[in-house]
Amino acid sequence: MNEHVEKSKAPAVDASVLILDLLAAASYPLTLTEICEQTGIPVASGHRIAQTLLRHQLIAMDPSRKKAYCIGSRIFQIASTVYNKQSLIPYFFPIAEILKNEIHKLIFLAVPVGNKVVVVSKVEPSLNTSLNLFIGQTMPMHRSAAGKAILSMQSANFRKSYMEGEKSVAPLADNRVAELEEELSRAHRLGYAVSQGEIEYHLSCIAAPVLNLRNEPVAAISACIDSATLSAQDSRNYSKFLIQAARQLSSRFV
Question: What was the pLDDT predicted at 129?
Answer without folding.
Answer: 61
